[in-house]
Amino acid sequence: MASEICETCGEAPATIQCIEVVAGAKKIRMVCESCLAEKGVVIDPGLIKKTASHLFEAIPSLGSAHLDPTSRNETGTCVECGLTWLGFKQNSRLGCAQCYEFFASEVSSVLDRLHGATQHEGRVPERARAQNDRRRKLSEIRAELDDAIRSEDYERAARLRDSLQTLDTNQDEDASHGAR
Question: Is a pLDDT exceeding 70 seen at residue 179?
Answer without folding.
Answer: no
